[in-house]
Amino acid sequence: MKVLVIGSGAREHALCRSLSLDPDVTALHCAPGNAGIAEVAEMHAVDALDGAAVARLAGGLGADLVVVGPEAPLVAGVADAVRVAGIDCFGPSAEAARLEGSKAFAKDVMAGAGVPTARSYVCATPAEIDAALDAFGAPYVVKDDGLAAGKGVVVTEDVDAAREHALNCVTAGGGRVVVEEFLDGPEVSLFAVTDGRTVVPLQPAQDFKRALDGDQGPNTGGMGAYSPLPWADPKLVDEVLETVLQPTVDELRRRGTPFSGLLYAGLAITSRGIRVIEFNARFGDPETQVVLARLRTPLAGVLRAAANGTLAGLEPLRWSEESAVTVVVASHNYPGAPRTGDPVEGLAEVAELDAPAAYVLHAGTRREGGAVLSAGGRVLSVTATGADLTEARDRAYTAVARVRLDGSQHRSDIAARVAVEQRG
Length: 424
Fold this sequence. Notes:
- By secondary structure, the chain is α+β, with helices and mostly antiparallel strands.
- It is built from 14 helices and 22 strands.
């Protein structure tokens, strides 16, 4: 089949890499893409938020399947426009993508589905914000109701900082903010592919949101991830499917807004059981990088089955027993306003190291002449696999050491504690 991927980040590079290895994919296109994606797919210039333009491009290319990577195009209705044009599309409708586009909507869906989540208040005034903060106490959890590129959440012991973020969300955002109780316990990311009825979970992963080692510093879009989770209950995936994923998909279908695409559940494994922190309507970044590194079932057929409603007939997914680790190399000052335009060097040296066990996925890059330049906050996702997390970490960090980007930053402790525990 001919496949068009929409997006320009490391998530889309991971998707394109997997699709390029799929023998059923005869032509692979990406719009707008990045410097790394250009090595495996034909690039096209298009406004990813313009559904009509994306549909025209897909039609002109004769695409059999369009895969929409980022959340903003989904919320903007790009998947709807592609489907209206008669082309299979992996990604939910704009109405169903509200599950990510509005925290308040997600809370309402969870309530209807009986999905366990944090207690919360949706606030629109300073008085409501103060009452909610007082009700829960520290640590305070304040979430922008709308899309915030993974950086709209503040978790703090400082009530003034929590109130300031909440007021900013109300005044600068959509007029609402969600204040909720703090959830203890480790966090897990679990993706599921669904056609609106059948739900097929992928393997769980864990990401690292804070900018600095030891989970210090500000929240980011994610500084690294690993999979599998040696410490997790073997029944975790089945339990989440039964109590979270399937009920959510069933509730959305009951409401007349069926969800077809990738349902991402961010979970907290608390002392009181599993609780949903958030839903996303697309593959997460950087977890996608490690999950797809372990997937052995060809990807295109899985995505198309979700797009055309035939997931129930899909063979069980096959997974590698290996571990995968990804380390994000970010620009100077990330997650603040990043410095861009710096040369990215050493990529050829990584390719010579231990391919295909270690490789670089581009996030914020562009090509100028013969050079690759930084073009965003998160620049690269350096990904590696190994027999266990220790070997995967060693390979990933050996590759990171070959990358040269002036002023860049990365965490040195991705999966470190768990790798030590796994080796015993």
